[in-house]
Write a structure and sequence with these properties.
heterodimer, A: 385 residues, mainly alpha, 2 domains, 2 strands, 2% strand, B: 386 residues, 18 helices
Chain lengths: 385, 386
């Protein structure tokens, strides 16, 4: 019984992190059909936001708030990641709607840039970047207007951006010789977020040791889930989002601003990635490569659950979490000690974290052979089933 | 390039071949061994890029798992090289570290060079065939296919990474110090021979792909890319075509991986890392998808740029690469070769005020050979977005 509860709790704990990571994807991928490979990097942005909030509150005038910094980090991470996602939507993804494979490649490019950005960002770098963007955006303002109505204007535009980037690089290089500005903000090393005192212990219940951090993540997941489903089901904008998902042309005819709806959907989905980032910081140190560990599994959760179905995502995440824990911990060996030797050695073979992942992925692929549309498929009759 | 009786046509036809032969004779003489080795490696990556072009550029299947087949080919040759210079009864060194006393059964056949030569492309082809059949049978396509192939990639990566006792895990297999035909694999003479072998195989792979993409089979692939349901309703079975082309791409990846392994001196699970497989796609995208020469060109150019940039400013490479992804997808969807073939240079000149050359001349309009070439161009447009 204790073993059962233990398995259940640990499985739910693994599943809850997956759930948070997949929730944002379920909104962005499930509702909009956009493949955002930078979703994991938006999680990373959330994690780094938590780190910044922690360091801001550690000392200084707001020191009194330090014990609850994690609660402040949640809305901040939501906002920062959400805004980053909004910027991504406005600049890149907007041009690629209806071309999912291209979106996949473009967002992968964004994820590479974001990873390297947190590694090498320093004050000098940041100022150079600001300068480059300012020069690039303001170039049309401060040059003769007729230049921008010529056949060669595209070349001029490209050239002005190249110049802007060159100026930014030179400035960043020059400022980089100043020691204080050269210091990277985060560097390539992993960062550690220390959980506040009240999240460090654990609670014993019916013989199961539950770390408070895990419980906190479970609560956070539940809260996020309730909030998202309330937002989608009950709020005016949620209803508009669902309307656009079902029939974009008709919604547009009825006066729903579809572009705003797209931007909003993306903002919410990215913000949820930020919240997932906060949760991940409680589990250990995080680094620039954080996203890669979660992105594929999160996509699998959404596909397994069935597109556009929030409940499917929930069930799939917890199912995966429990299966992953059962295989990885080898607890089957404890439950059934007298099993045949061949089975025993097979289970022991897969009873490590990385081999458990192997088996989980294989199981998902086998499952999709029988239910290609996931656990809860969308009803409807389409050629593109 | 249609055959043409005029001397200009035959020059155009033969020039590339002359160029290739000349380059493969001159380059080994001029380039220092290190650079030659790099060029050989990048050319061998061109073969896997050709496979990616077949399945993505022509058939519209974006596989993010080509690294599986690439690494399987590499491991096949790596296992053979670990075995072939041993005394009878001896085991490869790393087995001693993990207390393995007996050679695992699946290693045994790789002692035979003949088996290895066949296995290095049949095993990847077989894996690709099975995986492809299972996926395509269920009509899983588009981004679902991409994600599934990436998941499959992770399966293989974690497996090879975690199995120290079977395949030396993270450390991979070294091939530098092994002997092939009595010669050290890492030696300069051997590397020069391998370079020639690579050039030969790239040309062979290109010819194979060209043969596949011309004619009815190629048309079927493009039809799948452009409108699969319509093709199915016309009475074709897309599953067979897709499985076949995915298998061919897998075999090409295996050959490419084997060549890359012997030239870089090691095969490790890093060949199955997620980013590497996505990079293969971007080589094709930059070179020009749906154009075979673009795939090879893209692989060589980008990897060369990468090695240059990484030598000078290692931390900027990811920025450049990310920007490349964005730029190609938003601004240059047909890649460099596609841009060139669609008259990109003339557009550029027109922007600068140089009037574009008139596209037709009365003399040309009456020339039957020009007209034939034009119509073949129209019926086989060089790839591009549907």
């Amino acid at each position: 019984m204790t073993l059962f509860l233990d398995t259940l709790f640990n499985g739910l704990a693994i599943g809850s992190v997956l759930m948070l990571a997949a929730l944002g994807l379920a909104v962005v991928f499930g509702l909009m059909g956009v493949i955002n490979m930078a979703h994991g990097e938006l999680m990373m942005v959330g994690a780094y936001t938590t780190y910044v909030v922690q360091n801001l509150l550690k000392e200084g005038p707001l020191e009194a708030l330090f014990p609850v910094y994690i609660l402040l980090a949640i809305p901040s991470a939501f906002l920062v990641s959400g805004l980053a996602g909004l910027l991504l939507e406005k600049t890149v993804i907007r041009r690629l709607y209806g071309r999912p494979l291209e979106t996949l490649l473009a967002t992968w490019g964004v994820s590479l840039i974001l990873q390297q950005f947190v590694r090498s960002v320093s004050s000098a770098f940041f100022l150079g970047l600001l300068l480059a963007v300012a020069v690039g955006l303001l170039a049309p303002r401060f040059t003769p207007a007729p230049w921008w109505r010529q056949p060669w204007t595209p070349l001029l535009r490209a050239g002005s951006w190249v110049l802007a980037v060159a100026a930014g690089v030179i400035i960043a290089g020059g400022l980089g010789s100043v020691r204080a500005l050269h210091q990277p903000w985060f560097s390539a090393r992993n960062i550690d977020v220390t959980a506040p005192q009240w999240l460090r212990g654990s609670i014993d219940l019916a013989g199961v040791t539950m770390p408070s951090a895990r419980l906190f993540i479970l609560a956070l997941t539940a809260l996020a889930l309730v909030a998202v489903s309330w937002f989608l089901q009950k709020s005016a904008w949620g209803i508009r989002i669902r309307a656009v998902t079902q029939n974009r042309a008709m919604s547009s005819c009825l006066g729903i601003p579809t572009e705003t709806v797209d931007a909003l959907t993306f903002f919410v989905g990215s913000g949820l990635a930020g919240i997932a980032g906060v949760a991940v910081t409680l589990l250990g140190s995080v680094g620039p490569n954080l996203g890669g560990n979660y992105i594929v599994l999160a996509f699998m959760v959404v596909v397994l659950g069935g597109l556009g179905k929030l409940w499917g995502t929930v069930v799939a995440a917890f199912l995966l979490g429990i299966v992953d824990y059962v295989i990885g911990s080898g607890s089957l060996l404890l439950i059934w000690p007298t099993m045949p030797a061949a089975l025993n050695s097979t289970i022991a073979f897969f009873a490590t974290t990385s081999m458990a992942k192997v088996l989980v992925f294989i199981l998902i692929m086998v499952f999709l052979q029988f239910r290609p549309a996931g656990l809860f498929p969308q009803k409807g009759r389409m050629v593109e089933a | 390039m249609l055959s043409s009786s005029s001397s200009g046509g035959s020059l155009r036809r033969w020039a590339p071949w002359v160029l290739i032969v000349a380059a493969s004779i001159i380059l080994p003489a001029v380039l220092p061994p290190f650079r030659l080795n790099l060029l050989g490696r990048f050319l061998s990556l061109g073969i896997v890029a050709l496979g990616v072009d077949l399945i993505w550029g022509y058939t519209g299947l974006l596989s993010l798992g080509q690294g599986i087949f690439f690494a399987l080919g590499g491991y096949a040759i790596g296992m053979h090289l670990s075995l072939n210079s041993l005394e009878p009864g001896q085991l490869p060194e790393f087995f001693g570290l993990y207390g393995v006393k007996e050679l695992p059964a699946f290693w045994q056949p790789f002692a035979s060079p003949l088996f290895t030569l066949v296995a290095l492309w049949t095993i990847p082809a077989l894996v690709a065939g099975v995986l492809g059949y299972l996926v395509f049978r269920n009509r899983i396509k588009g981004v679902y296919f991409s994600i599934l192939t990436q998941a499959a990639l992770l399966v293989f990566f974690n497996f090879f990474n975690g199995q120290q006792r079977l395949i030396n895990g993270t450390n991979g297999l070294k091939t530098d110090t092994a002997r092939l035909f009595g010669e050290l694999v890492g030696s300069d003479a051997m590397q020069r021979n391998l370079f020639w072998l690579t050039v030969l195989l790239v040309v062979a792979a290109w010819l194979l792909c060209r043969w596949l993409t011309r004619g009815r089979f190629g048309d079927a692939l493009v039809a799948i890319r452009d409108d699969e349901p319509r093709m199915r309703f016309t009475g074709y079975n897309p599953t067979a075509y897709k499985t076949l082309v995915f298998t061919v791409a897998g075999a090409l990846a295996g050959i490419s991986g084997a060549l890359y392994t012997v030239q870089s001196g090691i095969v490790s699970p890093q060949y199955m890392a997620v980013p590497f497989s996505i990079e293969m796609v971007i080589w094709v995208a930059v070179g020009g998808r749906g154009t075979l020469i673009g795939a090879v060109l893209g692989a060589v150019l980008i990897n060369y740029a990468r090695s240059l940039i990484s030598e000078q400013l290692p931390e900027t490479w990811l920025f450049v690469q990310g920007a490349l992804f964005l730029l190609v997808v938003t601004g240059l969807p047909d890649g460099l070769v596609g841009w060139w073939r669609q008259g990109g240079l003339q557009h550029l000149l027109a922007m600068l005020g140089r009037a574009p050359r008139a596209s037709t001349y009365p003399g040309l309009d009456l020339d039957p050979s020009v007209q034939a070439e034009k119509s073949s161009f129209l019926s086989h447009p060089p790839g591009g977005e549907p």
